[in-house]
Design goal:
The chain is α/β, with parallel strands linked by helices. It has three domains: 74 residues, dopa decarboxylase, N-terminal domain (Up-down Bundle); 247 residues, 3-Layer(aba) Sandwich (Aspartate Aminotransferase, domain 2), CATH 3.40.640; 146 residues, no CATH class. It is built from 18 helices and 16 strands. The strands form three sheets. It has a seven-stranded mixed β-sheet with strand order 1-7-6-5-4-2-3, with helices on both faces. Strands 12, 13, 14, 15 and 16 form a five-stranded mixed β-sheet that branches. The longest helix is centred in the middle third of the chain and has 35 residues. The protein starts with a helix and ends with a strand. The C terminus is likely disordered. InterPro entries: Aromatic_deC, PyrdxlP-dep_de-COase, PyrdxlP-dep_Trfase, PyrdxlP-dep_Trfase_major, PyrdxlP-dep_Trfase_small, Pyridoxal-P_BS.
C-alpha cells in the first residue's frame, strides 16, 4: 500500500468509523456468537500473497463485527466506560504514524517531555498535593503514564517490597532475603480490584483482603486490627492499597484513616482511583482528597472516564527514586549524554518500549478543555441519579451503596436467584448488557453509565427493559391475563391454524373406519412452542413454516386412502410410526386401541412474554371420532402451542 492508496483507504476508514459510531444502536450490544466461531470462518494458514483492501474490509463486516461487544453502544452498561473520542482516535493515528519507541529522552525527546507536562497538567486539574507533582521545587515526586491500573498497582507494590526488604535487611542482616519475603503482607479491602491480589501473586507476598463497613468502605480500625494481629504472628506489614471508586459498587475507602495508620507504621500507602479518580476534576468531588497528604502513590485512568482511548493510566509517586532504584537496569546501549539532565521513563516501568500515549491526552484536553470534561462527567452522574430514583420508586427493588458517580447497584428484594434470573434474561435478550457484583453476600446488578452522550431517553429505555424482565421473573408461572381483541395478525394466525386442523380432520374422516375405544394411548406428547415476533412479517412466515412442518400431513395430503401402514408412511417422512404432533395407528396396533384422531386449536388466553408483548395461547386438544361423531376424550393429554 503506497501513500495514495493509504490516503484513499484512510478516508474510507474514517467514513466507516463515523458511520459505525453514528449507527451503533443498530447493532446487538452483545454478540450472539459461541466460543470458537471465528476459527471456523478464517483459513487455517496465512495467505501467501497479499490480498485486496476491499476483501479485507468485506471480512471485517462479515467476520469481525459479528463478534464485537459494542462498548460504545448506548445500551452498554457493563464494567465502566471505555474512553473514546475523535480527538483521541486522531492522536493515536498520528502516534502510530510517527512510530517512535520513547523509552528514553534520547529515543524521542518530545515523548518524554510532553508526558511530563501532561502529568503536571492532570495533577493540577485533579488538585493533587504538590508533593506528587513533577515540577514542585525541593520535592522528589513525579509521575508516569502506564498502560493500565493493574500495572500501576504492580509497579508500586514491587517498589514498596524493595523498600521494605532493604529496611529490614539493615535491621536483620543475617536473615536471607527469601525468608523476609515470606513474611511480607499487603492489605486491601475485599472490594478492591482483582489486580491487587494478582500483584501480590507476582510479587510473592501475602495479600489480606479486609472486610468493609455498611457503606462498603475500608476503615482505619479494621486495618489497624489486621496489622496488629499479623505482627503478633511474626509477619511484616509493608503495603496498603486504598480505593477511590471500587469496581463492585463505586465506594471509596477512608483514605484519611488508612493514610494516618500507614504513616505511623511506615507502610507504603497506594490509592487506586482508576475510575473514581477522574471525578476529582470536578470541585464537588474534592472531599475525596481528604487524607491525600499521606499518599505515597496514586493512579487513575483517563481511558475510563475522560474520553481518552485505551491504554492510558496515569500514576504519581511521592519519591521517584523508589521506582528508579527498583527498575534501574542501565546497559551501555541505552545510555546517553543527557542521562543526568533528563527523565528516562524506562526506569519507571516494567516494559522498556513505550508508546507515545501523552499525545492523545494533549489532543483531548485541548479539544474539550477542563469545562468540557467536567460537563461530560457531571452528565454521567446526573443520569445515574435518575436511574437510581426510578429503582427506588419500584418497591420490588433496592439500591445497595450510595450513588455518587456513574454507577448504580440494584437488585430484586428476596433471594439472590431472582436477581440472577433477571440479569440473565436481560443479557440474553440483547437489549442491554450489564454485569453482576456481590456486596456482602448479596447478588446485585451493576448499571454503569458508559455512553459518551448518555441521555434521559437511554436511562428510561433501560429501566423499561428492566421492569419488563422483572415482571416476567416475579410473575407466577400460571398467571394469565384477560383476553384482548385479536389483531389482524392474530386472525391470520388463527385462520391458518383452523384451516390446517380442518384439512387434517377431513383427511382422517376419509380413512377406513375402525372400531373406537375409550382407551387412550400410553404415548405422551411433548409441548410444542412456536415463536415469532408478531410485528415482523418474516417472523410470521417463519412461524407458519414451522407449523406447516408440524402438520405437513394435514396440508400436503388432503385426501389419503389406503391401508393404515400406507397412511402412516404418508404422515411421516421417516416412515411408519409416529412423528411429533401426530399419533398414528398401524395394523399391528391392538384392535381395541385403534381409533381415528384429529387436532383442533382454539385461543384460550393471552400471556405476557419476556419482552412485555402479548402472546396468544392455543390449547391443542386431541379428539376421537366414533362413527363420524366428534367426542371430546378427556383422558387424552392437552398440549399448548404458543405463537407470539
Amino acid at each position: 500500500m503506497d501513500g495514495e492508496q493509504f490516503k484513499q483507504n484512510s478516508e474510507e476508514m474514517s467514513s466507516y468509523i463515523v458511520k459505525y459510531l453514528d449507527n451503533i444502536s443498530d447493532y446487538r450490544v452483545f454478540p450472539d456468537v459461541a466460543p470458537g466461531y471465528l476459527r471456523k470462518m478464517l483459513p487455517e494458514e496465512a495467505p501467501v500473497k497479499g490480498e485486496e483492501w476491499q476483501d479485507i474490509m468485506s471480512d471485517v463486516n462479515t467476520k469481525i463485527m459479528p463478534g464485537v461487544t459494542h462498548w460504545q453502544h448506548p445500551r452498554f452498561h457493563a464494567y465502566f466506560p471505555a474512553g473514546n473520542s475523535y480527538p483521541s482516535i486522531l492522536a493515536d493515528m498520528l502516534s502510530d504514524a510517527i512510530g517512535c519507541i520513547g523509552f528514553s529522552w534520547a529515543a524521542s525527546p518530545v515523548c518524554t517531555e510532553l508526558e511530563t507536562i501532561m502529568i503536571d497538567w492532570l495533577g493540577r486539574m485533579l488538585n493533587l498535593p504538590k508533593h506528587l507533582l513533577p515540577f514542585t521545587d525541593n520535592c522528589r515526586g513525579g509521575g508516569v503514564i502506564q498502560g493500565s491500573a493493574s500495572e500501576c498497582t504492580l509497579v508500586t507494590m514491587l517498589a514498596a517490597r524493595t523498600t521494605a526488604l532493604r529496611r529490614y535487611k539493615e535491621k536483620y542482616p543475617d536473615i536471607e532475603d527469601g525468608v523476609l519475603l515470606t513474611k511480607l503482607v499487603a492489605y486491601c479491602s475485599n472490594l478492591a480490584h482483582s489486580s491487587v491480589e494478582k500483584a501480590g501473586i507476582i510479587s510473592f507476598v501475602k495479600t489480606h483482603q479486609l472486610p468493609t463497613d455498611d457503606q462498603y468502605s475500608l476503615r482505619g480500625t479494621t486495618l489497624l486490627e489486621a496489622i496488629q494481629l499479623d505482627e503478633e504472628r511474626g509477619l511484616i506489614p509493608f503495603y496498603v492499597c486504598g480505593t477511590l471508586g471500587t469496581t463492585g459498587c463505586c465506594a471509596s475507602d477512608a483514605i484519611d484513616e488508612l493514610g494516618e495508620i500507614c504513616q505511623e507504621r511506615g507502610l507504603w500507602f497506594h490509592v487506586d482511583g482508576a475510575y473514581g479518580g477522574n471525578a476529582l476534576i470536578c470541585p464537588e468531588f474534592s472531599y475525596l482528597l481528604t487524607g491525600f497528604e499521606y499518599v505515597d502513590s496514586f493512579n487513575f485512568n483517563p481511558n475510563k472516564w475522560m474520553l481518552v482511548n485505551f491504554d492510558c493510566s496515569v500514576m504519581w509517586i511521592r519519591d521517584k527514586t523508589a521506582l528508579t532504584s527498583t527498575f534501574n537496569v542501565n546497559p551501555l546501549y541505552l545510555q546517553h549524554e543527557n542521562d543526568d539532565a533528563a527523565i528516562d521513563y524506562r526506569h519507571w516501568t516494567i516494559p522498556l518500549s513505550r508508546r507515545f500515549r501523552a499525545l492523545k491526552l494533549w489532543f483531548v484536553i485541548r479539544t474539550y478543555g477542563v469545562e468540557g470534561l467536567q460537563k461530560y462527567i457531571r452528565n454521567h452522574v446526573k443520569q445515574a441519579k435518575a436511574f437510581e430514583e426510578l429503582v427506588w420508586n419500584d418497591n420490588r427493588f433496592e439500591v445497595l451503596g450510595e450513588v455518587t458517580m456513574g454507577l448504580v447497584c440494584f437488585r430484586l428484594k428476596g433471594e439472590n436467584s431472582l436477581t440472577e434470573r433477571l440479569l440473565k434474561n436481560i443479557n440474553d435478550s440483547g437489549k442491554l448488557h450489564m454485569i453482576p457484583s456481590s456486596l456482602n453476600g448479596k447478588y446485585v446488578i451493576r448499571f454503569a453509565i458508559c455512553h459518551q452522550y448518555a441521555s434521559e431517553d437511554d436511562v428510561s429505555y433501560a429501566w423499561d427493559v428492566v421492569k419488563m424482565m422483572a415482571d416476567e421473573v416475579c410473575r407466577p408461572p400460571s398467571r394469565l391475563l384477560r383476553q384482548r381483541r385479536p389483531s389482524v395478525l392474530d386472525n391470520r394466525i388463527t385462520a391458518f391454524m383452523h384451516t390446517t386442523s380442518s384439512q387434517y380432520a377431513e383427511m382422517l374422516r376419509e380413512t377406513p373406519e375402525s372400531p373406537s375405544t375409550s382407551e387412550t394411548s400410553s404415548t405422551s406428547e411433548d409441548d410444542i412452542e412456536v415463536k415469532g415476533e408478531q410485528e415482523d412479517e418474516k417472523s410470521l412466515k417463519a412461524s407458519i413454516a414451522i407449523l406447516e412442518s408440524r402438520f405437513s400431513d394435514a396440508i400436503n395430503i388432503p385426501n389419503v386412502r389406503g391401508t393404515r401402514d400406507e397412511i402412516n408412511n404418508a404422515r411421516s417422512p421417516r416412515g411408519a410410526g409416529s412423528h411429533r404432533g401426530v399419533r398414528t395407528v398401524s395394523d399391528s396396533t391392538p384392535h381395541s386401541r385403534r381409533r381415528k384422531q384429529s387436532v383442533f386449536q382454539r385461543p384460550v388466553a393471552y400471556e405476557i412474554d419476556a419482552f412485555g408483548k402479548l402472546k396468544e395461547s392455543f390449547r391443542v386438544q386431541r379428539l376421537s371420532f366414533d362413527n363420524g361423531e366428534q367426542k371430546n376424550n378427556s383422558r387424552l393429554n392437552n398440549r399448548r402451542m404458543t405463537i407470539f
